[in-house]
């Protein structure tokens, strides 16, 4: 399954800058959108391959970030995607403190998922919606 | 009314040190890499202490200390371990006010909750497991006249515990008490959002526990939590948090073939059946309070009753009364004992809640009250406050499906009993639920049909020790807050003994 590049998930310029920094420090990275309590409902950023994805996950897309060589894949558990499929996600970054084992916490920031409804046209064109 | 002086001001009942190191092997030791991070209070956003920024090297040091203490602690009698737990409880109780103010300052919660719930519950938790380990028995099976299987409870050894930031001291107590009672030694990592209050507790109890039995390594999840979760010297991991980290912890545990217990949150339904409104009596008032319980601890509770399901025949009037009640919630300085709702624990938490309020509005949910950040003025302007917020909407909306972990309630209606159960169970999670009715049969049926580990019936947000707490579905693995948690911190030794004099006859 290929991620519909850029159509479901995007990244703000501030978050892109943080991804450049994290990639410099740690190599290629990935996102997995979390659910549940505490730091849940937030995107977790790991070294690529650190988090084992499988049949229980959906690949939402790949973020293409200027200055970052490898596209940054964004994943979510398939069961969670059922409730999220009608929304478009933008990964942003805000000042903050820690969250699980996500890479950005020591930088004093926290990635944050902002959402909006997908347009009818976006839903029509979306590969995951057709599945 | 009491307004406790802020820590650092004259007259405060507690004072923080300017810096906290790691607590390893019975003493405070600086981080090996020498780095620290600033810890702000969510009350004002101002930094009040700095905390050791632990790394894998510090975790390794702590695990080695715990391994060194493991054999002696595991051999202590249940009586000795119970005495240690009871002394911890007595000490915390004697310093209840200071510990409660410390907790409020570190986390942002109203001190009235810390005084009435967090710290007394932590005290009781140590007493409960002191009693439970004294009363625990092994088992024997008489297999035939000459053969007996003895079953002994033995400790696991060293356990890693990763503590959340919503109830920093109480959640540490939930994890420490059963582990210590079981005879395990512990390496504990506090949340980096709330790393300070546990050190106030350690300052009181450090001398009560043999060196190496309890070790605390501070730091960020990725730098200290992860090396702890995947350390080859630990025999179990206990974690409270969210699903992605929960999966990662299971993944690491699979590499070491060790067990985990996980508490990963929920999206708890709170169901109000029509007979609740038959009378305007004390029970109706209690149910109304139950409706407002989503605001407890600023909604930063894994079992926050963040979905209210109200039967359609009473929907308008019950909801109107509920909204009026929520509007009377007093928001203010967390150290004022009249304050009912304080600050969110961190800036990123505040931002996340606001982003959910945005998506709720965009999905068409209707804001009945609140819906914005609260600016309380003065020094509190720098703190992280959100207005108690009520949305009216549909269970398919994301604000009905995701744990916002803020004072945000999503309300919908149902027609018949079966609809209530269907909506309640339409969730990835199954940690808590509430059922409100005057009819015992309805209460029983609903409680049994809801897929959740804890169904509060005509009550909510009570957490007494000896009532098992844990999740169905994606809410986790294990049951805390009950003697059955001892099983998660022990392993079974079977000694199979033959008293027969003769050979078995094979060779």
From TrEMBL, chain A:
Looking up InterPro entries in the UniProt record yields:
DUF779 (IPR008497)
Instruction: Please report the name of this protein according to its UniProt entry.
Output: UDP-glucose 4-epimerase
Where does this protein come from, organism-wise? Planotetraspora thailandica
UniProtKB/TrEMBL annotation, chain B:
* Residues at the active site: 263
EC annotation? 1.2.1.3
- Catalytic activity, reaction form: an aldehyde + NAD(+) + H2O = a carboxylate + NADH + 2 H(+)
Q: Which top-level enzyme class is recorded in the Swiss-Prot or TrEMBL entry?
A: oxidoreductase
Q: Which UniProt keywords apply?
A: Oxidoreductase
List the GO molecular function terms. aldehyde dehydrogenase (NAD+) activity
CDD domains hit by this protein? ALDH_ACDHII_AcoD-like
Please give one Pfam family short name: Aldedh
> Could you tell me which residue ranges the Aldehyde dehydrogenase domain spans?
35-495
Which family, according to the similarity comment?
A: Belongs to the aldehyde dehydrogenase family.
Please state what the protein is called.
Answer: aldehyde dehydrogenase (NAD(+))
Organism per entry: Planotetraspora thailandica
Kindly list the organism's lineage.
Answer: Bacteria, Bacillati, Actinomycetota, Actinomycetes, Streptosporangiales
